[in-house]
Amino acid sequence: MRDEVTQKRYEAAFARLAKSKFRSRFHLSASGKSLVNEKGWATIRAHCEDFVRTRLAPAYPQRDGRQTPMRGHPVFVAQHACACCCRDCLAKWWHVPRGVEIPAERQRGIVDFLMAWIEKEMKK
């Protein structure tokens, strides 16, 4: 369970993202929701942690700007909806500097935010 301050920060961030025509068009499909239910929250979170660690956290990720598919895995959809899909989007939306490895604590914050978005979508 998130504390009240974190929950309010997430709600403000979701509201900001909702104002973007591009970001607001992403939602979990029925098959995405089914995958979350089938695999379970712990597995989805493990996938999320792996994607963030391997595809976003390096200072210069391979294929940066093209490393996150637009659909398929629920985490990929969340990454686009939350502007956490590439280093350019992380820099623009979240002020994560380019060319510097993302520290573990910041990675956890990104994962927590992506998981919060998935959780919100699962309730729709």
Can you tell me about this structure?
With 124 residues, the protein is mainly alpha-helical. It has one domain. The protein contains 6 helices and no strands. α3 crosses α6 and α4 (74-81) packs across α6 (104-122).
Properties at a glance:
124 residues; mainly alpha; 6 helices; 61% helix; 0% strand
Uncertain segments of ≥5 residues (pLDDT<50)?
none
> Can you count the beta strands?
0
Proportion of residues in helical segments: 55-70%
Pattern of helices and strands: HHHHHH
Give the C-alpha Rg. Answer: 14 Å
Number of helices: 6
* Strand residue content: under 5%
The domain count comes to 1
The N- to C-terminal Cα distance equals 19 Å
Summarize the structure.
With 124 residues, this protein is mostly helical. It contains six helices and no strands.
Q: Secondary-structure blueprint of this entry?
A:
Layout: H1 4-18, H2 30-39, H3 41-56, H4 74-81, H5 87-94, H6 104-122
Helix pairs in contact: 3-6, 4-6
